[in-house]
Design goal:
Blueprint: H1 11-44, H2 55-60, E1 62-68, E2 71-78, E3 81-88, E4 108-110, H3 132-145, H4 149-155, E5 173-179, E6 189-195, H5 218-222, E7 226-230, H6 235-239, H7 249-264, E8 270-280, H8 282-292, E9 305-309, E10 317-318, H9 319-332, H10 351-360, H11 364-370, E11 378-379, H12 388-393, E12 401-407, H13 410-418, H14 425-437, H15 449-467, H16 472-498, E13 502-508, H17 529-532, H18 539-542, H19 547-565, E14 570-571, H20 581-585, E15 588-589, E16 598-602, E17 610-613, H21 614-617, H22 619-638, H23 647-655
Parallel strand pairs: 2-4, 6-7, 6-8, 8-9, 9-12, 10-11, 12-13, 13-16
Antiparallel strand pairs: 1-2, 2-3, 3-5, 5-7, 14-15, 16-17
Helix pairs in contact: 1-3, 13-16, 14-15, 14-23, 15-16, 15-22, 16-22
């Protein structure tokens, strides 16, 4: 084809060009052959994009044994860190609350492999953990043939994806990483419990983003911290109530995991009195739900410190909203409207069918009515008596110190996941208009919706001019990042302070050069997780990680380790020379949020972390926060919807295509 398009005035030159084109074609043939070989290799290989493979570490590691209440567990030691995986912390029947596992003693249980994941649909974000070349191969393969692993996950979501281990209902297991010498030594080390995110429908405690390939984290390896991750029930199994069952089984699982930590962590060298709970996205929202469930006010408390990243206290459904979700599930199961859902309706459903049923709620026929997160914690009046933000205001966070964090470009990832395209400012304005004047629940309740729309758009244009946001997509991300993430974080920080608590806030403005998204230069939702956990060895970061990325990681991990250990929280005075003695002496106190909305920014260019009054620094965020404050007063007076429960409605109103 290329040869036929080449024209030349002389036969000699034409012959020369034919030779050149023949060489190009030969090269392309070799490239295609290599691509085909890579694809075949990819198909035949056992690829586990989301779960760490421990085989190599286990084969070369020394065995280490810890004694739990149910019996001994056998893990492995690698490079000074003892790692235990897949330890059952509870057992649960479908739609029932968790209960303690029966003991297995005198047997010794293998704890070198992760337990099964909760039944869930595939998370496309986990493909970032693939080596860049393999990700490119999968994308090309899918683009050319509409087949391969991506097709199985994206076009056939009911199939169990290839991110082994296999999904099972017996998914309630914990993983522990601790300094090797601490096992059985009653070392009284501080404990960091990490709750994974994933929108309450995907994820697990063994994700590659949470530890290196050998299960090590810098907290256990270098800072003397015992680290715990765990699985909890997701989607329908975690957050749907049926007759004879309970609401909030996913939250109940999280409570059971924290109770297991209280009873057993001493065997791994941890101190049950020094527990910090940390969560990202839905994991952070889970921390707020745990506060509302009274976890921090028990005697003894289940945790005394908390870190919430890219999630706040704004995600909880009312019982009426949860019942609406149940009606849509009933319709998918072809159960009559007057028949309550029961366990019997799900008896014949395996994992794949559960995944398909949960995915059906994402279809337009349901999503338009239910919003983007129909499965999440519920204010049921039993476990969770009030909205998490109200619970914080009323003392649920008393005695707890907090770190609250967001990223600068959270909503970019959500737009990519939904393939949401905003082509003009007029479309943004129309979405804002629906948000302020919708008949089925406005976020910004205001007498003059047109004035609100006009003011927000003016602020958005000023913000865009200041930051060089030339595309409508960029401006929409700026607005939605503040509406969905930053403003709820600010309101949570204010509620903690108003109740007499202590909170520190920071924002990641640095954009790690993730290969797939490098041209965007955006601090995406979730990109802070491998930085804050210190796992920058991930394939999607290690190949392109800059010195800035490494310095931000070192600074945050060091500050988090101090926070978890109960030491004063400090910041580096400068990024260059971090780790040397002079830089250590120059570290400065990290200021609390307080009345001045003090927030620390980790950006791409400043020689040190930047400290600002966030609401003075960011007029757009201040406007959204003020609107939500005003809306809450109006909502309370007008007896409409409660603002804290409206994030899913907001996302539906602002993020849906204009035609809906």
């Amino acid at each position: 084809v290329i040869s036929m398009t080449v024209r030349s005035r002389s036969p000699a030159r034409r012959h020369h060009r034919h030779c050149r084109c023949g060489g190009v074609l030969a090269g392309l043939s070799v490239l295609c052959a290599a691509l085909i070989a890579a694809c075949v290799t990819e198909e035949l290989a056992t690829v586990r994009p989301s779960v760490v493979d421990a085989d190599d570490a286990v084969r070369t590691a020394r065995t280490v044994v810890a004694s739990t209440e149910a019996g001994d567990v056998r893990g492995f030691e690698h490079d000074g860190v003892a790692v235990f995986r897949g330890i059952p912390f509870a057992h649960a029947e479908r739609f029932q609350p968790p209960r303690r596992v029966p003991p297995w003693r005198p047997d010794e249980r293998d704890a070198t492999r992760f337990g099964p994941l909760a039944p869930q649909k595939p998370s496309h974000v986990v493909y970032l953990s693939l080596p860049p070349w393999r990700l490119v191969v999968r994308l090309l393969w899918y683009a050319l043939t509409r087949s391969g692993p991506l097709a199985r996950d994206w076009r056939e979501p009911a199939a169990v994806p290839d991110d082994a281990p296999r999904h099972e209902h017996e998914c309630l297991t914990v993983n522990v990483a601790t300094p090797a010498g601490a096992v059985g030594a009653r070392a009284h080390l501080p404990v960091l419990v990490f709750i994974h995110g994933g929108g309450f429908v995907t994820g697990g405690g063994g994700m590659r983003m949470y530890a290196d390939a050998n299960g090590r984290t810098p907290y256990a390896a270098h800072h003397g911290v015992t680290v715990v991750t765990f699985n909890y029930r997701l989607g329908l199994l975690g957050f749907l109530k049926v007759a004879g069952g309970t609401y909030n089984n996913g939250v109940r699982d999280q409570l059971a995991a924290l109770e297991w930590v209280q009873r057993n962590i001493a065997a791994f060298g941890g101190d049950a009195r020094r527990v910090t709970v940390m969560g990202n996205s839905a994991g952070a929202m889970s921390v707020a739900a745990l506060l509302a469930a009274g976890a921090a006010q028990r005697t003894p408390p289940l945790f005394t410190r908390a870190i919430l990243q890219s999630g706040a206290a704004h995600n909880a459904l009312s019982v009426a909203q949860a019942q609406r979700v149940a009606r849509h599930v009933r319709a998918e199961l072809h159960v009559s409207a007057d028949t309550p859902l029961a366990v019997a309706h799900f008896e014949r459903l395996g994992d794949a069918e559960f995944i398909a049923l949960g995915n059906a709620l994402d279809a337009p026929r349901h999503a338009n009515a239910l919003g983007l997160m129909p499965l999440q914690p519920v204010v049921d009046g039993t476990l969770i008596a009030q909205q998490p933000l109200d619970a914080v205001r009323h003392g649920a966070a008393r005695g707890v110190e907090f770190i609250v964090a967001t990223t600068a470009d959270e909503y970019v990832l959500l737009m990519l996941a939904k393939a949401d395209v905003v082509l003009s400012d007029a479309e943004i304005a129309a979405r804002v208009r629906r948000c302020t004047a919708s008949s089925h629940g406005a976020l910004f309740v205001h007498d003059n919706a047109t004035h609100v729309e006009h003011s927000l758009m003016q602020l958005l244009h000023a913000h865009a001019a200041q930051h060089g946001l030339v595309l409508p997509q960029q401006r929409y991300n700026a607005l939605m990042t503040r509406v969905v993430f930053a403003a709820p974080a600010a309101l949570l920080a204010e509620a903690i302070e108003a109740a007499g608590g202590v909170v520190y806030r920071w924002r990641l403005d640095h954009a790690p050069p993730v290969p797939l998204f490098a041209p965007m230069r955006a601090a995406l939702h979730g990109v802070e997780v491998p930085l804050t956990l210190g796992v920058v060895e991930q394939p999607w970061l290690a190949a392109t990680a800059t010195e800035r990325t490494l310095n931000v990681t070192r600074a945050v991990v060091r500050a988090y380790a101090e926070f978890v250990s109960g030491e004063p929280l400090r910041l580096p005075a400068r990024f260059d020379g971090m780790g040397d003695a002079a830089a250590e002496r120059e570290r400065v106190p990290w200021p609390r949020y307080g009345q001045h909305h003090t927030t620390v920014l980790f950006d791409d260019h400043s020689p040190r972390p930047v400290v600002v009054d966030m609401l003075a620094h960011d007029a757009l965020e201040r406007a959204v926060v003020d609107l939500r404050r005003h809306s809450r007063r109006a909502v309370g007076a007008g007896n409409i919807f409660r603002t804290e429960a409206l994030t899913h409605t907001l996302e539906q109103l602002l993020a849906a295509p204009l035609g809906e």
